[in-house]
Design goal:
This protein is of the alpha+beta class and 274 residues long. It folds into 2 domains: 92 residues, no CATH class; 109 residues, Rossmann fold (3-Layer(aba) Sandwich), CATH 3.40.50. The protein is built from 8 helices and 14 strands. A 5-stranded antiparallel beta sheet has the order 5-6-7-8-9, with helices on one face. A 5-stranded mixed beta sheet has the order 10-12-11-13-14, with helices on both faces. β7 and β8 form a beta hairpin. The longest helix has 34 residues. The relative contact order is 0.10.
Length: 274
């Protein structure tokens, strides 16, 4: 399998080789309007990651005849890539801390558009554009942020750690795992309306839900992606899960379409809350 085919298998929309030795971002099948795919091509080997499906970088090696010098070169490249990854993660964590320190707690257009006109969040203004800032932590340590612009476009900081990273709404209740922040806000509102406790884990991607929920008891609220990524991930995790019957909907879409009370009833029935 050549490098382009290797990337496409992971859902990365790529049709030509990137410049040698540089990380390059590409759209993915499940998120064609975002650049959730990252690749780096080094000739005899390369790296690829679909951030929506995997929290780890995958290694590709050329199928050319075994050459010990090439294998030594690949081994060195892997070690160099690991050192480079850790360096970029540290730089991203420092940048995330700077962004949070220089953010204000305010309303944001994205929250209004998602049905939460009175909700406040961290807002960081960059080049005149207000960005909603969602802190991402691993074991309570800040590793990065998700930035959301007023049009709803989302991105992480370059090089930041996303594996096992989460944002938590903790109300000392059952664990609930979901992908997006707006989805979590709708879950929180629905359960508050029903006077139920919750601990909601925003995992930022279906692939990361596998990591965050590993070994834990709880419930999944899945996105109904056309690719079935959310549904397949929920089934793989094996916990009770909720999913909309409408393709393309997450729980926030569902709640805004049918109303808060009915959405809450659907949620608690699917998740088998006592």
């Amino acid at each position: 399998m050549d490098f382009l085919a290797f990337c496409r298998v992971q859902g990365i929309l790529i049709d030509h080789l990137p410049l040698m030795g540089e990380w390059k971002r590409y759209p993915t099948e499940d998120h064609p309007r975002s650049r959730n795919g990252a690749v780096k091509y080094l000739g005899t080997h390369g790296f690829a990651q679909n951030h929506a499906l995997s929290t780890e970088v995958s290694l590709w090696q050329s199928e050319e005849k075994y050459d010990i010098k090439k294998q030594e070169s690949i081994s060195k490249a892997v070690q160099d890539a690991e050192r480079d990854k850790l360096k970029r993660q540290k730089e991203a964590a420092d940048k995330a801390a700077f962004i949070l320190k220089n953010s204000q707690f305010a309303q944001h257009q994205y929250l209004k558009d998602k049905g939460f006109p009175d909700e406040h969040g961290y807002v960081y203004v960059k080049e005149g554009i207000p960005l909603l800032v969602i802190p991402m932590r691993v074991n309570n340590s800040l590793v990065g942020v998700q930035l959301i612009d007023p049009d709803g476009n989302k991105k992480f900081l370059f090089g930041q750690r996303t594996s096992n990273a989460e944002f938590i709404f903790d109300n000392k209740g059952p664990h609930i795992f979901c992908e997006g922040y707006a989805t979590a806000l709708s879950i929180r509102m629905a359960l508050k309306n029903l006077k139920r406790r919750y601990t909601i884990h925003v995992c930022f991607s279906a692939g990361n839900m596998l990591k965050v929920s590993d070994g834990m008891q709880g419930h999944i609220v899945a996105d109904n992606d056309e690719s079935k990524t959310g549904e397949n991930t929920a089934k793989r995790i094996g916990l009770p899960f909720w999913i909309s019957e409408v393709i393309g909907e997450d729980f926030n879409d569902f709640q805004r379409r049918i109303g808060l009370f009915r959405a809450g009833q659907s949620l608690t029935q699917s998740l088998k809350f006592g």
